[in-house]
């Protein structure tokens, strides 16, 4: 069974783990730099990109051997990107919300009827 997370694939403290960490940092920086352009042209891809950035930053924050300042920065940025992702999720339209409020989860009997 293969694990796709760099943090779990490479033993900590090895040259390979350092390279894996640096590749992940490089990937996150690339995604961040492209996110602004995506947000203007492709909202769905930008939303997925924000979620990926958040995930990679969380992964970096959890890597063993990560310098404390870098770990704290990645943790803080992952929280900020989580908020960006939430803000970019599609909002229900007001008409859909009103319809749900009126119809409710199930059938409600008329309150003024007596049986």
Overall pLDDT score = 79
Low-confidence stretches: 1-10, 107-111
**How helix-rich are the residues, as a percent range?**
over 70%
Anisotropy-based shape? elongated
Amount of beta strand: under 5%
Structure description:
With 115 residues, the chain is mostly helical. Helix content is 70%, strand content 0%. The chain has helices spanning 6-9, 15-41, 43-61, 68-88, 94-103. It is elongated and about 60 Å long. It starts with 5 loop residues before the first helix and ends in a 12-residue tail after the last helix. Residues 1-10 and 107-111 have low confidence and may be disordered.
Q: How would you briefly describe this protein structure?
A:
Helices cover 70% and strands 0% of the residues. The protein is mainly alpha-helical and 115 residues long.
Would you spell out the secondary-structure blueprint of this structure?
Layout: H1 6-9, H2 15-41, H3 43-61, H4 68-88, H5 94-103
Helix pairs in contact: 2-3, 3-4
Q: Notable features of this structure?
A:
115 residues, mainly alpha
């Amino acid at each position: 069974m293969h694990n796709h997370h760099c943090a779990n694939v490479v033993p900590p403290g090895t040259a390979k783990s350092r390279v894996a960490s640096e590749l992940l940092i490089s990937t996150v920086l690339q995604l961040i730099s492209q996110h602004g352009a995506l947000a203007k042209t492709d909202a769905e891809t930008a939303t997925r990109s924000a979620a990926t950035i958040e995930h990679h930053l969380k992964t970096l924050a959890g890597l063993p051997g990560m310098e404390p300042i870098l770990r704290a920065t990645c943790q803080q940025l992952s929280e900020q990107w989580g908020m960006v992702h939430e803000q970019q999720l599609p909002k229900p339209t007001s008409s859909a919300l009103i319809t749900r409020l009126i119809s409710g989860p199930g059938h409600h009997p008329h309150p003024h009827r007596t049986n």
